Amino acid sequence: MTDGVKNRQGMKYNRRRTVNESYRNALQAFIDRRRSSNDVEIETSNSPDKLRADLSSKNNNNKCDNKWKSQELKSIIPGVPHIAAPEIFEIGWIAGTEDRYLELIFAEWQNTRVSLKRHSHPECKDAVKADLDILSEIRHPNVLLLMATTFTDDHGLVSIFESVDCTLYHYMHDQGERISMQGIAKCGGRLSDALRHSHMRGYVHTAISSHCVYLASNGIIKLGGWELAMHINNPKPKREYEERLRAEVFRWQAPELFHGYEPYKESDVYGLALLIWEMCTMHVPWNGYNKADVERQYVHWKRGVIMDLYNFPPLLYNLLEAGLQLDVNKRTLDMNRMRRFLQNCNTRM
After folding, report:
1. Which residues contact 310 (CB under 8 A, 6 or more apart)?
2. Can you give the residue ranges of every domain in the chain?
3. 166-348 belongs to which homologous superfamily?
4. At what angle do helices 314-323 and 335-348 cross, to 10 degrees?
5. Which of 191, 178, 162 is CA-nearest to residue 8?
6. In which band, very low, low, confident or very high, does the pLDDT at 235 lie, cut at 50, 70 and 90?
7. CA–CA dist 113, 126 (Å, integer)
8. Among the four 17, 69, 265, 306, which has the fewest Cβ within 10 Å?
9. What angle do CA 168, 13, 325 make, to 5 degrees?
10. pTM metric for this prediction
């Protein structure tokens, strides 16, 4: 990042600090409160058992129907704390997530800043649950930290994440903040490490873009937006929300997805390489093109994003040239190699 970025965002690129502090600091207040409340009362107000009892009593007193009750109980994800919605105080939208089918909201929970993720369209209600299911399998310091869930009448299941300031898209294109080449290499390295972990766990992201990369409040880049992810060994699931969500990120999609092929690990390689291209050029890929135009460029004309008009450092140019191959079979990089390549770029810049 530039010096200005470091000063304003407080971004810390020390890998050891990220691994040791990102999880501990984000969850410390939450863990302490749960531990201290357990000392006083065995059945805490935030425990799943207490929530079920309170919900049952509330439904009986208000004569609510059983369908709503079953939806509430089913929203509890194993291993993820579930809390009552009145405990959360909403503040406002997180910059860069307004007017999207999945929005993020600034909020406070027990004096701790958090981010709420919820759907804004009824067809996308299952996307929140899909995101949670993946995140429960791939926890990583560079993946947006899931802290809890809640349930509301208007939005159903809502996920609660660590606090974030804005999307990378907003930071670059709305605020106009430029990232240094060394900062780009560090950001790319963090994202490749997260994706390497998800690939090892058997999941591909399939929808990497600057809209799903966040600047956390501790200054660290985090990867979110896992609702379109899929398991490598499973057939592509049929999801009601997929068409709407992909319509928001079609400019970042790998070429093979326009051919109707299922995503591969190499699709994430293309997505990360295109994101690095975006950070280097400060341009949205295929800006001004509609989906049919982008598909025509990839499928009919066999053209990718422009490389020759920009002065990339030689090491990054080599990475982009390899990662942005239109033919998935010629895209020989994997996340291990991308990670090592970006580490090498960082040390030489």
Report:
1. 280, 281
2. 166-348
3. Transferase(Phosphotransferase) domain 1 (1.10.510.10)
4. 170
5. 178
6. confident
7. 25
8. 306
9. 55
10. 0.79
